Amino acid sequence: MKRKLAYIVFGTAVMFMCFLLAVDVYAQASDVPYIAFSSNRSGNYDIYMMDINGKNLQQLTDGLANETYPTFSPDGQQMAYISSGDGNWDIYVLDLTTKVSHRLTNHPARDSGPAWSPDGRWIAFVSERTGAGHVYKIEPSGANLQQLTHGDEKNNAPAWSPDSQFIAYRSFKDPSGIYIMEADGRNPSRLKNQPEPGWTPAWSPDGKRVAFTVVLGGNYDIYTLNVDGRNLRRITLHLEFDGWPAWSADGHMIVFGSVWNGNYDIYRIDVNGAVDNRRKLTRHRQIDMGPTWVPTGALSVSPTVNTHTTLWGKLKQSVGD
Questions:
Q1: Would you give the distance in Å from CA 216 to the centre of its chain?
Q2: What is the DSSP letter of 297?
Q3: Measured between alpha carbons, how far is 249 from 245 in angstroms, rounded to an integer?
Q4: What pTM was estimated for this model as a whole?
Q5: Which residues of 223-245 are buried (b: 16+ CB within 10 A; e: fewer)?
Q6: How far, in Å, CA of 18 to CA of 7, rounded?
Q7: Torsion angles phi and psi, residue 244, rounded to 5
Q8: N or C: which end of the chain has fewer CB within 10 A?
Q9: Fold held by 37-299
Q10: Helix (H) or strand (E) holding 270
Q11: Closest CA to 64 of 49, 84, 79, 48
Q12: pLDDT by residue (tens digit) across 167-215?
């Protein structure tokens, strides 16, 4: 009797420990952030994603056209991107659950640079339909197209503030650089104290800082600057190109594209660490560019069911024996 009771107690303990292991495995798997980026490693540009360690590569698009510059809905269920599907660059939206894509814009001029607003209501983008590149926004349904910038000067690279009330963008008007406007296009103003005209802005998740690329002495490096123009910080220090910064949801990391010895790869960096504490994430001879963070809802393959089934199957077998 005592021996049987000991087996029961031991079996129960093993079950509990393995249950904790299963929970821990699931938590770790679901908590690992992912990054999406564009690459021509398959012969044309497609969109891929990988975890922040450069592992678990998955291909999200696989068409004959070039497909680049992904941006995700806040719930992670949809991805907007640009495609040259019919020989013209337009914006498409992919449902990541059904894998069905639909065309969002349809204009002979080039549409590019989509950015999904954090409240999910809008997709900002750049279009050359009036000649110069201008910033527009449109509802994800394709309704309510609005032109936000005007004039003869080119504008590009829209980036939403975390509260969806403002858009940062790059303008070529004099003086050129990073500008910030209200989400309806009103009151544009240049970001103060840019060391040189900035490119490719990215808003920090707390809304206090903007990361951008600056060309100084022929080098492209990433800096951050408070929205009020204070606290300029250099994040990368590199002799070649660093660009396309994108903040992690906790504000601790930035992923970006960089050229090293003539090769384009994706890197990540600790924003609060030493200057240029970069870590290389891709190592492919082809071009990897334009990284962005993937919301957790976009990860359609969850390890939960398989992990729990396997562990509980082993537990039952152990106890039964």
A1: 26
A2: G
A3: 13
A4: 0.84
A5: bbbbbeeeeeeebbebeebbbbb
A6: 16
A7: 55, 50
A8: N
A9: Neuraminidase (2.120.10)
A10: strand 263-270
A11: 84
A12: 999 999 999 999 999 999 999 999 999 999 999 999 999 999 999 999 9
CA distances, 10 to each of 5, 17, 45, 309 (Å): 8, 11, 55, 21
8 Å CB contact between 155 and 126: yes
Write the pLDDT tens digit of every residue in 41-74: 999 999 999 999 999 999 999 988 999 999 999 9
235 φ, ψ (degrees, to nearest 5):
-100, -40
Share of the chain above pLDDT 70, in %: 83
Nearest CA to 300 out of 58, 23, 55, 101 is that of: 58
* Residue 11: partners with Cβ closer than 8 Å, 6 or more residues away: 318, 319
pLDDT digits (tens, 9 = 90+) for 64-104: 899 999 999 999 999 999 999 888 999 999 999 999 999 99
What is the chain's length?
321
Residue 111: in which H helix or E strand, if any?
A: strand 111-116
Q: Are 201 and 221 in contact (CB under 8 A)?
A: no
Task: List the alpha helices (DSSP H) in the chain.
Answer: 2-31, 304-320
The C-alpha R_g of the chain, in whole angstroms, comes to 23
DSSP percent split of the chain into helix, strand, coil, nearest 5: 15, 40, 45
Q: Which two tokens stand for residue 198?
A: 């900035």
Quote the tokens at residue 270. Answer: 């600790």
The residues spanned by each domain of the chain are 37-299
320 CA to centre of own chain: 48
